[in-house]
Structure formats: structure tokens, C-alpha cells
Amino acid sequence: MATPASGSVRPGIMLGSTSEFSLFFAIRDGHLDELREALTRLAEAPGYRPGDHNLPIATIHEARFVIFDDDTRLLFATSFDGPWDAYIDDFASKPLALFDSIFKHLEGYRGASDAAELKEFIEGHQVTATAYARNYGGTVKEIRRAGRVDAAFQRVLDDPAAEQALQDPALNPLLGEASQ
């Protein structure tokens, strides 16, 4: 488990190649219903729908929004590959209409006319985790590749034409992993 480094330049903990990101916002009075609707639209957008696994920001491992504290605050938490600045630059380079439709319901948000303004808003609401742990290693790209390799290997295992090739002793380590 990683803990924050003292003297850290940017908020958040980096564990291996992955960084954590936790933002806490106050919801503007009278904006709760509109915020819930905006979050629903985001969850239904291509790339964000459950099972899509193709988020527009390809370095994100997962993302979640949580309304809490008697419906007065919002948590946006995620983990991503690489350092904070690279993630925020990638985030700010995307069409931000969906996120703008969420952020406009939060106190202190004045719109994101440029990347610097968006970075300032985000950094002003980020809190570094007290501790951060992951149950798996690898970047999103590596994990996706491993999934593709596993699916391809499963097709080979299921193919009767591969039976003779699978008898080669050089494949024992791979076959041993596949049987677990």
C-alpha cells in the first residue's frame, strides 16, 4: 500500500505506473436533480456505459461519482496510468461537454474555457488519498493486451487442429497458467 510522498509536487499517490485521483466538490443549492441527470447521461454515453471498456481517456482504470453527505457533496474518484499532468492534459484535450454538464452544478465552477482554468479548478478540489492499494499491476494498455492474448489462446485451446502443437513441452508453462 502506498502513502503520500512528503513534498509531493502534485496531489495524489502514484503506485507503480498508476496514480489515484480523488476530487471532492460541494453541490450548488438547488442543483441536485440536474446533477443526477447529468451523471446518468454520462453513464449512458458511449465509452462510459457498463461493459463498454472504451473510455475516451484511454489511461483510466475506472471512474466513479458518489453523491454523499446528505446529497450536498460529490466525490469523483479514479485511477489512471502515468503522472497527474499527463492525465489532466489528456482530460482537458477531450470534448468536455459531458463533464461541463456535471461540473456546472458544483460550487466554484466557472466553466472550462481553457486547459489551465480546468486544471486549476480540479487541483483546487483534489485531496490526496491517505493510502492507496491496487490488486493488479500493469497499465490499461497492458491489461487490454493481456485480455486479447488470453482470448486468442483460449481459441487455440478450443481448436482441435491445435492438439498436436499443444503437446510441445515448450508450451507447458503457458498451459499450466491456462489451467488455473
Descriptive labels:
36% helix; four-stranded antiparallel β-sheet; 180 residues; alpha+beta; single chain; 4 strands
Helix and strand topology:
Layout: E1 14-15, E2 18-26, H1 32-44, E3 60-68, E4 73-81, H2 84-93, H3 97-103, H4 115-123, H5 140-158, H6 172-178
Antiparallel strand pairs: 1-2, 2-4, 3-4
How would you describe what is shown here?
The chain is α+β, with helices and mostly antiparallel strands and 180 residues long. The chain contains six helices and four strands. Strands 1-2-4-3 form a four-stranded antiparallel sheet, with no helix packed on it. Strand 3 and strand 4 form a beta hairpin. Helix 1 (32-44) packs antiparallel against helix 3 (97-103). The longest helix is centred in the C-terminal third of the chain and has 19 residues, at 140-158. The radius of gyration is 21 Å and the shape is elongated. The mean pLDDT is 87.
Q: Overall pLDDT, averaged?
A: 87
**How would you describe the shape?**
elongated
Main sheet: strand order: 1-2-4-3
User: What structural class is derived from the secondary structure elements?
Assistant: alpha+beta
Tell me about the largest β-sheet. Answer: 4 strands, antiparallel
Q: What is the H/E string?
A: EEHEEHHHHH
Are there runs of 5+ residues with pLDDT below 50, and where? none
Specify Rg, calculated over alpha carbons: 21 Å
Q: Beta-sheet strand percentage?
A: 15-25%
The termini sit apart by 26 Å
How many separate helices? 6
Q: Considering DSSP H and I runs of 4 or more, what fraction of the residues is helical?
A: 25-40%
Tally of strands? 4
